[in-house]
């Protein structure tokens, strides 16, 4: 099968590493010939994944296409789909999810629990919706990794809001934040991975570290799984989806956002689960039986983030020390340049003991740093 990936970042890189186990000829479209995935695919095309002609010409000779980022030209994917190319997730699902206004409307229309919201076109609109405060303002398009998201606690924070089409969401009193990865094949059969609990860096609003399986009350887990399945079934699209959920202080579960692709919250599945999220997506694309999403052992992930004050050619301080640790797996994404807050890699830890996971995660976080010499 000729399999195309739109985007050549670290998610594409890890998908290609898993694709080496299958009989697939891989193609990548990206506008940077030095991107993390470039040297791992069979065929690399230099081009803009947001350009209609670039995406259409890239895809028209392929059997199947998937994405590693939502910011792609959906019109080109719709044309390719109409001409018989398998596009997973479907263009309609990507179109719904990539725009946060459409995504929130989807939750409302499908009776999926999500925080109260209003749509704003201009920053000045916020003055009319102070009753929703404290709130979170999210740009409809263009935001990623904590960018394009602003917390507005009081009227004084309005000047931090966005002057473009955006969603204003009422803030939820979060007790726990989890992610559930759901896979669905063309027959509508679904699998769901054990939940991952996410602990965030308050400065960058990026994942600091995570634990999986998250320790949840059984009834809360069942509720979260039912909601996550409802999201994917509502999108009516084969593929792999990461559903980010909030559990509030009363035990209610709310959908925060959905990603229509492999996701940072599933990196641990490479070592910690029988079938990784990347293997699972390939099985769906290649029309093979779904894999086993169960955990082999509990795990933690630590992101390797570009250190504050460091911009330029990357050097990994503390790498040797971390590689000496037992049951620790280092993934470097191959990005030559670091900058503050940039995702440069991740480390997975596996252990039967959650205390051991947390201890090692904190040790790695303070030992391994992406810096410049």
What features would you describe in this structure?
- There is one protein chain.
- The protein is α+β, with helices and mostly antiparallel strands and 373 residues long.
- It has 3 domains: 2-87, Rossmann fold, CATH 3.40.50.20; 116-170, Dna Ligase, domain 1 (2-Layer Sandwich), CATH 3.30.1490; 174-371, D-amino Acid Aminotransferase, Chain A, domain 1, CATH 3.30.470.20.
- The protein has 10 helices and 22 strands.
- It has helices at residues 10-19, 52-59, 74-82, 91-98, 100-109, 218-235, 269-272, 277-285, 319-323, 354-367, and strands at 2-6, 25-30, 43-46, 64-67, 86-87, 117-120, 135-139, 149-152, 166-170, 174-184, 190-192, 196-201, 206-212, 239-248, 253-259, 299-305, 312-313, 315-317, 328-332, 337-338, 343-350, 369-371.
- The strands form 5 sheets. Strands 10, 11, 12, 13, 14, 15, 16, 19 and 21 form a 9-stranded antiparallel β-sheet that branches. Strands 3-2-1-4-5 form a 5-stranded parallel β-sheet, sandwiched between helices. It has a 4-stranded antiparallel β-sheet with strand order 6-9-7-8, covered by helices on one side.
- Helix 3 (74-82) links the parallel strand 4 (64-67) and strand 5 (86-87).
- It is globular.
- The model has no long low-confidence stretch (mean pLDDT 95).
């Amino acid at each position: 099968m000729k399999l195309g990936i739109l985007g050549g970042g670290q998610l594409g890189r890890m998908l290609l590493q898993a694709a080496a186990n299958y009989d697939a000829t891989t193609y990548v479209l990206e506008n940077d010939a030095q991107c993390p995935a470039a040297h791992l695919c069979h065929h690399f095309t230099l081009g803009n994944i947001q350009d209609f002609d670039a995406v259409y010409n890239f895809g028209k000779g392929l059997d199947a296409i998937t994405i590693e980022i939502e910011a792609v030209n959906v019109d080109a994917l719709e044309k390719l789909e109409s001409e018989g190319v398998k596009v997973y997730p479907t263009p309609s699902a990507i179109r719904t999810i990539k725009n946060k206004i459409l995504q929130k409307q989807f939750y409302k229309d499908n009776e999926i629990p999500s925080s109260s919201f209003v749509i704003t076109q201009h920053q000045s609109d916020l003055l009319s919706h102070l009753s929703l405060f404290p709130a979170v303002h999210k740009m409809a398009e263009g935001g990623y990794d904590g960018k394009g998201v602003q917390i507005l606690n009081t009227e004084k924070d309005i000047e931090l809001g966005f002057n473009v089409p955006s969603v204003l969401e009422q803030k939820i009193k979060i007790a726990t934040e989890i992610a559930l990865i759901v896979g669905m094949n063309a027959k509508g059969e679904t699998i769901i991975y054990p939940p991952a609990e996410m602990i965030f860096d308050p400065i960058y609003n990026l994942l600091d570290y995570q634990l999986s399986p998250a320790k949840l009350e059984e009834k809360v887990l069942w509720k979260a799984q039912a909601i996550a399945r409802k999201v994917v079934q509502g999108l009516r699209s084969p593929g792999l989806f990461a559903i980010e959920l909030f559990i509030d202080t009363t035990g209610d579960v709310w959908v925060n956002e959905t990603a229509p692709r492999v996701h940072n919250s599933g990196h641990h599945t490479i070592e910690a689960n029988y079938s990784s999220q990347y293997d699972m997506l390939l099985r769906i694309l290649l029309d093979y039986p779904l894999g086993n999403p169960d955990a082999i052992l509990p795990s933690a992930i630590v992101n390797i983030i570009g250190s504050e004050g460091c911009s330029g050619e990357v050097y990994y301080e503390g790498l040797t020390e971390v590689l000496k640790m037992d049951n620790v797996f280092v993934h470097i994404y191959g990005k030559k340049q670091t900058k503050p807050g940039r995702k440069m890699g991740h480390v997975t830890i596996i252990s039967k003991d959650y205390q051991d996971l947390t201890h090692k995660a904190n040790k790695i976080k303070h030992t391994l740093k992406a810096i410049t010499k």
